[in-house]
Design a protein that fits this description.
Elements (H helix, E strand, L loop, with lengths): L1 H7 L10 E4 L5 H13 L4 E6 L12 H16 L3 E5 L23 E6 L7 E6 L2 E7 L27 H10 L1 H8 L7 E7 L12 E3 L3 H7 L17 H28 L3 E5 L16 E5 L17 H12 L5 E6 L12 H13 L4 E4 L2 E2 L24 H15 L3 E2 L3 E5 L6 H9 L4 E5 L7 E3 L2 E4 L2 E3 L1 E3 L20 E3 L5 E8 L2 E8 L5 E7 L5 E5 L4 E4 L3 E3 L2 E8 L4 E6 L3 H5 L13 E9 L4 E10 L2 H6 L1 E5 L1 E2 L1 E6 L2 E6 L4 E5 L7 E10 L3 H4 L7 E2 L9 E4 L3
Parallel strand pairs: 1-2, 1-13, 2-3, 3-7, 7-9, 10-11, 11-12, 15-16, 15-20
Antiparallel strand pairs: 4-6, 4-8, 5-6, 14-22, 17-18, 18-19, 21-24, 22-23, 23-29, 24-28, 25-26, 25-29, 27-28, 30-31, 30-39, 31-37, 32-36, 33-38, 34-35, 34-37
Length: 710
């Protein structure tokens, strides 16, 4: 099957493309070494991200700076890797690390404020019942790339007025054009995109102001607005004036900032990438060639779930925007500062697996891990950790992670989503409370933002938009009256008995095969009778291990029924085979015999290396084990590596860790099982120690315990 060929060997284009924090003493040799190391671990692209900690002598956008960027780009080209250029130093984007404003103070960010008494330099717009509305410079800043330029520090660069066309043209001239002059031969080849990062109209560290720009008062009043109505922006009220204000600001930001960048990128053969300021900023996604969002600060998480709150909508925001625009890829800058309990570096393999699955099942197909650190020296290790690449405990086994992300990206690219429910939404209002029950009942849906409502038409009790038909509409009960506004009338993508609110499902066609991507978003194993609406024989693909096998299913009037067991942190692809012969060609999917009752004792603990070693001994005389091998299940916090007779048998990153011990690792007589558990780097870099090792049901450290098999 074409689907299996793609998943077994995903093309390089589906690689994760991490932020590479260029945060230390840069040398050509070290840049080359790290890029080769990335390639050797299955990472074939990077975002070149100037970051806090760069040498003070390397000025942003200086000749020395571009020499190092050139070394990275040339090395990537030689290694057949891809580069995304980052358009700022450091973030939010739009000021060229303050250079836009240098010598042009009138281009600094502006806002409006409601004050009792204007200050010198304020431009008074109007008097209101509660005070005076004034226009003023916001005083906002960005985070720079050198020490002393961070939030609240004396040299923090000033942010720029990205609603002003003159500002944005100067930003492009300073950054994009400078890269183009030096590296234009690589554009569209090695250099595939420019990343713009959460541009902020006001800048950082601004309070009690709302976005504004020079001349905006005239635009607002020409469009029918009354300036005094904007008092409501500061009281939490809403009126016709505030609604007009938000629409005009959104349109201005889209056309002046995103539109200019988008057109420049398109004219120069690269993609506009990155993400807007807020997780539910869906309207400006149309300017991106690769729509994107970012998942940071544990805004969603295993403990809070993936369906609550504004930020829970981010993955569908970028994926649905891409689908509406016919964009092939959409991205997420993921894992940044997603630490547990406010403890830097307390980020587990279990967490990373959950976040990847959360994104993929909602349609994200380009992962931008935040971040791979060039240097962890000194205070660099505390700058928005963790390092989820070479500075992580799982880096020796990172091909498992890069391969998993590549398979998911390949799977979800060019996937024809099955969605019979349209959710009408407005910018910064993606209705998380409306869509949560859809996720929990496994009903596929598509966001339709306000900008496309005018293209929608009612036809035969369905809503049609951009070639797609929807049998139900949610979100605006007064619109499209001939279409049902009840999602219960739409059949789910799968049927579960009993119901499984933690099961996420994406149903789609990929490479002509009907597919169901299943993800366990909960904290317990899912076990249910699952019915798929198809008559085809069913195969399964383990996306983590890269293995396809047959599934036994019973045909019925509503489809085929099978027994589903999806473990904690489990994901699984089910697909329909186009013939019985194709189904029979799959592996039978039988597991190796499970080993039960093996007793481990702790042999040693190496606190400096964050490792605990456990040993068990087993006499093997059974011919079946010596011929076939066996499987072993343990529970450890967090990364566990198994060696049997000094033969490496794999690594597991979340409990329960499951290992297959091949026959050639076993020998007749006594066999030595050695389990090495590596602890969280929060023990080295964080605020508090984090326990690790073998665990029992109570989560206690044990010297000896029994562990069952599958």
């Amino acid at each position: 099957m074409e689907l299996l060929k793609l998943l077994n060997n995903p093309p390089r284009e589906f690689t994760p493309i991490p932020f590479w924090f260029l945060n230390g003493h840069l040398t050509r040799e070290e840049l080359q070494r790290q890029l080769r190391d990335f390639r050797d671990h299955g990472v074939y692209g990077v975002v070149l991200h100037p970051r806090m900690g760069m040498d003070a002598g390397v000025g942003y956008l200086s000749d020395a700076f571009f020499e190092f960027m050139g070394a990275a780009i040339e090395t990537a080209a030689a290694l057949d890797m891809r580069v995304v250029l980052y358009d700022e130093g450091m973030y939010p984007s739009g000021s060229a690390c303050g250079q836009v404003v240098e010598g042009h103070p009138d281009l600094a960010s502006r806002g409006i404020a409601l004050v009792a008494n204007p200050l010198p330099g304020d431009d008074v717009l109007c008097a209101t019942e509660r005070g005076m509305l004034v226009e003023r410079f916001s005083g906002g800043t960005i985070r720079g790339v050198h020490y002393g330029e961070d939030d609240g520090e004396p040299h923090a660069p000033l942010s720029a007025d990205i609603l002003n066309p003159e500002t944005v043209d100067r930003f492009i001239a300073l950054t994009h054009e400078a890269y183009w002059r030096r590296f234009g031969d690589h554009f569209g080849k090695t250099v595939v995109g420019f990343f713009t990062d959460e541009p902020s109209i006001l800048g950082r560290n601004v309070a009690d102001m709302m976005p504004w720009t020079k001349g905006f008062a005239d635009l607002y009043t020409r469009c029918g607005g009354e300036l005094r109505d904007l008092e409501a922006l500061f009281t939490g009220e809403e009126n016709a004036g505030t609604r007009l204000y938000h629409r005009l600001i959104l349109d201005r930001e889209g056309e002046v900032y995103y539109g200019r960048l988008s057109r420049w990128c398109e004219a120069h053969g690269v993609a506009l990438m990155g993400h807007p300021h807020q997780s539910d900023d869906i309207e400006v996604e149309r300017y991106f060639h690769v729509p994107g969002q970012d998942l940071v600060y544990r805004w969603v998480s295993p403990e809070t779930g993936g369906t609550a709150g504004m930020d829970s909508t981010m993955a569908k925001c970028s994926a649905d925007a891409a689908r509406l625009m016919g964009r092939v890829r959409n991205s997420n800058e993921c894992f940044g500062a997603c630490n547990r309990e406010g403890n830097p570096w307390y980020f587990t393999g279990s967490d990373m697996k959950w976040f990847i699955d959360y994104l993929a099942v909602r349609g994200v197909n380009l992962f931008i891990p935040h971040a791979f650190y060039y240097s962890l020296e000194g205070q660099r290790s505390a700058e928005r950790p963790p390092d989820v690449g070479p500075g992580s405990i799982w880096w020796p086994h990172y091909r498992r992670w890069s391969g998993y992300m590549a398979r998911l990206s390949c799977l979800m690219t060019c996937a024809d989503l099955h969605a019979e429910i349209a959710v009408l939404c407005r910018n910064r209002d993606l209705r998380p409370q409306t869509v949560a029950p859809l996720f929990e009942a496994q009903r596929g849906f598509q966001y339709l933002p306000e900008s496309v409502w005018g293209e929608c038409r009612e036809a035969g009790a369905a809503l049609v938009c951009r070639g797609q038909r929807y049998r139900a509409v949610l979100g605006e009960p007064e619109r499209f009256a001939s279409v049902s506004h009840d999602a219960a009338g739409v059949a789910p993508d799968v049927t579960c008995v009993p119901p499984q609110p933690d099961l996420r499902v994406a149903r789609f066609i990929r490479a002509d095969a009907p597919c169901w991507l299943l993800v366990n978003e909960g904290e317990r194993e899912i076990e249910a009778d699952l019915t798929l609406p198809t008559a085809l024989p069913i195969g399964a693909y383990d996306l983590w291990d890269g293995r396809a096998y047959r599934v036994e299913a019973a045909s019925g009037a509503d489809g085929v029924r099978l027994r589903l067991r999806l473990p904690y942190r489990g994901s699984l692809l089910l697909f329909g085979c186009d013939s019985q012969a194709a189904w029979l060609a799959l592996d039978e999917g039988r597991s190796l015999p499970p080993l039960k009752g093996l007793r481990f004792g702790q042999l040693e603990a190496d606190a400096a290396a964050l490792k605990k070693t456990y040993v068990a001994r087993l006499r093997v005389n059974a011919r079946s084990l010596l011929d076939k091998g066996l499987s072993l299940c343990v529970r450890a916090e967090e990364m566990a590596e198994l060696y049997v007779n000094d033969v490496f048998c794999g690594a597991g990153f979340w409990p329960p860790q499951r290992f297959n011990v091949p026959a050639d690792a076993l020998r007749e007589g006594e066999n030595v099982f050695r389990l090495i558990v590596t602890g969280s780097l929060a023990n080295r870099y964080g605020h508090a120690p984090v326990w690790y090792g073998l665990i029992d049901a109570a989560g206690e450290d044990v010297e000896t315990s029994e562990f069952g098999g599958f």
